[in-house]
């Protein structure tokens, strides 16, 4: 399907307005064991019921992952650990991880992805292979998320197309229709709304109805964001940061994703059937900074506060 090039842009939602509040409300956030250790009390930082993803970076002991999951679960947060296929050697290791998460932290949610490793450590190289084992279904996992790539993925489609990604998404859509697990696409972050909107609309047109949990990079120094964006293979929307970096007056100021969030919120308000269901924050500038920013967007607008 051709991309929609002549869309009339919706008026951007302003911070503190109902459209933006509705869009951000119920956000999820990502942590790693080493970053979680720096947070004294998650309950003082995140709204009750916030889903917390735990990123599993190569080399992180499973014991540290499970301990972080247990801490967050004990604090009342739904926990969604990463299962990166390429660092899982075989079905025995996968079964062991599932059993540990369930037995020690009561986990019933998972993000399944290939992982950022070039060469697989063993039998698995994709999230589809993890799903095909049936182990998550046997363990009674109720929610399974898989990766989405609004600007494509050069690791999967080296030619710059989205042919392989699209084929995988069609398989995952079919899988969701024949199982009881709730599924969604947790996406890579991007810095521009239009590519995200075009991608989401193309998925809907092709019959891929998995809800989208859109990845958004939280506030951070511009240099930090550019470094992460290049490392994670962010696509053309990287030019938003590069253009900003050319302005010396903006170079030293932290980036905030308000513009992209406002544009997406306005589009969602004007198009209720739009496939984005939730916002997922990558706290690249720190968990506390990101959570405070997100919570600030949820706060009532000044005029609303004055009236109460």
Automatic annotation (TrEMBL):
Organism: Psychromarinibacter sediminicola
Keywords associated with the record: Oxidoreductase
Lineage of origin: Bacteria, Pseudomonadati, Pseudomonadota, Alphaproteobacteria, Rhodobacterales
InterPro entries, A to Z: FAD-linked_oxidoreductase-like
SUPFAM superfamilies on file: FAD-linked oxidoreductase
Stated name of the protein: Methylenetetrahydrofolate reductase
GO terms of molecular function: oxidoreductase activity
């Amino acid at each position: 399907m051709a991309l929609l090039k002549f869309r009339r842009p919706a008026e951007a939602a302003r911070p503190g307005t109902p459209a933006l509040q509705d869009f951000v409300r119920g956000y999820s956030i990502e942590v790693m064991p080493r970053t979680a250790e720096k947070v004294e009390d998650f309950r003082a930082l995140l709204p009750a019921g916030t889903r917390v993803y735990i990123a599993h970076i190569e080399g992180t002991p499973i014991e540290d992952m499970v301990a972080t999951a247990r801490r967050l679960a004990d604090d009342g947060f739904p926990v969604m650990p990463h299962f990166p296929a390429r660092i899982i050697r075989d079905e025995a290791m996968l079964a062991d991880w599932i059993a540990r998460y369930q037995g020690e932290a009561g986990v019933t949610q998972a993000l399944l992805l290939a992982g950022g490793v070039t060469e697989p450590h063993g039998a698995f190289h994709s999230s589809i292979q993890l799903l095909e084992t049936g182990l998550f279904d046997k363990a009674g996992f109720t929610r399974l998320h898989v990766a989405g790539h609004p600007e494509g993925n050069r690791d999967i489609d080296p030619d710059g197309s989205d042919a392989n990604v699209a084929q995988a998404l069609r398989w995952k859509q079919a899988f969701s229709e024949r199982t009881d697990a709730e599924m969604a696409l947790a996406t890579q972050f991007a810095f521009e709304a239009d590519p995200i909107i075009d991608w989401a609309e193309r998925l809907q047109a092709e019959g891929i109805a998995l809800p989208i949990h859109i990845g958004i990079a939280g506030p951070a120094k511009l240099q930090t964001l550019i470094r992460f964006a290049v490392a994670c293979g962010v696509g053309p929307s990287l030019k938003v940061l590069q253009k900003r970096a050319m302005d010396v007056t903006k170079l030293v100021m932290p980036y905030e994703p308000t513009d992209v969030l406002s544009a997406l919120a306005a589009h969602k308000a004007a198009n209720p059937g739009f496939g984005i269901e939730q916002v997922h924050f990558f706290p690249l500038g720190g968990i506390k900074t990101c959570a405070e920013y997100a919570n600030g967007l949820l706060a009532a607008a000044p005029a609303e506060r004055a009236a109460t």
